[in-house]
Amino acid sequence: MQWLRRLFGRAEEAPFLLLHVRCARCGAVVQTRINLYNDLSVEYDDREELAGYWIRKELMDDRCFRLMTAELRFDRQRRLISQEITGGQIITAEEYAQARQTQQR
Ligand SMILES: [Zn+2]
Predict the structure, then answer these.
(1) Where do the domains of the chain lie?
(2) From which domain of life does this come (predicted)?
(3) DSSP state, 69?
(4) Is 90:30 a contact under the CB 8 Å cutoff?
């Protein structure tokens, strides 16, 4: 069952996260890629020990050009624990793909 382990082992260690967002004003969708090893800032706790990671990412769609700001927090294993966005809404990869299809005339 070596091939099985290869298949699943690799998917879990993806070094990046894809963030999909829908603009709250015009409804256009945007996709951005966050590198979990290069893009994140370190967050320390009161005792100056590693508490986790975070990133603030600015996105802009190509329809109304309004700026959206996403703030994501990760634990020490770089797993996503919270996400907030102003000016838009976080959507799933499926919703993003669907919206892209209808946007292209
Ligand atoms: Zn927009």
Answers:
(1) 16-103
(2) Bacteria
(3) E
(4) no
Q: What is the pLDDT of residues 46-102, one digit of tens each?
A: 999 999 999 999 999 999 999 999 999 999 999 999 999 999 999 999 999 999 998
Residues in the chain: 105
From ligand 1's centre to the CA of 42, what distance in Å?
Answer: 31
30, 59 in Cβ contact below 8 A?
Answer: yes
DSSP state of 38: T
User: 47: CA distance to ligand 1 center in Å?
Assistant: 42
Rg (CA), the chain: 16
CA distance 60 to 58: 7
For ligand 1, the distance from its centroid to the CA atom of residue 25, given in whole angstroms, is 5
Amino acid (1-letter code) at residue 94: E
Neighbours of 60 (CB within 10 A): 16
- Gap from CA of 100 to ligand 1 centroid (Å): 14
